[in-house]
Amino acid sequence: MLTDLGLDALWAYRSSYEAPEDFDGFWASTLAEARAHDIGLTLTPVETPLRTLDVFDVTFAGFGGHPIRAWLRLPRSAEEPLPAVVQFHGYGSSRGSELEQLHWASAGYAHLQVDVRGQGGVTPDPVGSGPAYPGHLTRGIESRDTYVYRRIFTDAARAVDAVRVLPEVDPARVAVVGNSQGGGIALAAAALVPDVAAVHAQAPFLCDFRRASLVAGGRPYTELTGYLATHRTRERETFETLSYFDGVGFAGRATAPAWFSVGLMDDIVPPSTVFGAYHTYRGPKEIAVWDYSAHEAGGADDLRAVLGSFESLLKPTK
């Protein structure tokens, strides 16, 4: 069943989000602090049974110079330099196995799959936080300076910096992609590194927080409502913090060609929040609406369409 507005209302919907006046200054200073650290890129070859791809265990310096892990997959015998795809994973998940997510490298891209700090993978978050509702969404939410997504979004920008250092990669042809949390991170990365070449945001989480808090019936957004139900006097301060991390704000600053997707039966990310970001997006954009999809937002069919669009835009080596 539909979980949010009908399609006509979604096309008409506009988010009430307004970016704080110092949004750009906050992120400029945050990235400058991170980039004061050497990128510290290391690649360790990983033995696999794969015959057409090479895999590396990667470490690079993210927020605070903290080490961030990733998989790098490269197509063997490909003509270089390669276009690259930097991928971010869903909420509470991880970069997974080195034998998973092989489609991007198989299609001719250098593929950097980033492990989000402090979640289900191998990258810790060494920064503590105050009281939070169980999960990740409210960690450090007392302040924009301590909020966990300040670190995660900075790590994402540094991931783009890292892949551009690789001699196998054409730094002008780097795309950012992700599903759910990964889609929200990709939108942030596209705004923070405005010369990325393309974006794929599949059912992006972390957009239109105020709207999501009012209509989402399941996790992870209910972690936010659970926090506010306990910290009843912190509503204003909480949404003030979130205003620096809202995907609608990043969408209004990103200009790379973008492909969004949304499932109208999504009970995790309300479709109106996706449209809130889509309508605000500054660059060339398309949105695939999957009437009978839930959070997978078209799944492999959506991915097939984006692979075709990236092929014509980024011209991967075959």
Automatic annotation (TrEMBL):
It comes from Amycolatopsis pretoriensis. It comes from the Bacteria. The lineage of its organism: Bacteria, Bacillati, Actinomycetota, Actinomycetes, Pseudonocardiales. One of its GO terms (molecular function) is carboxylic ester hydrolase activity. The active site is at S180, D266, H295. One of its GO terms (biological process) is polysaccharide metabolic process. InterPro entries: AB_hydrolase_fold (IPR029058), AXE1_dom (IPR008391), CE7 (IPR039069). This is Cephalosporin-C deacetylase. Residues 2-299 form the Acetyl xylan esterase domain. Signal peptide: none annotated. Substrate binds at Y91.
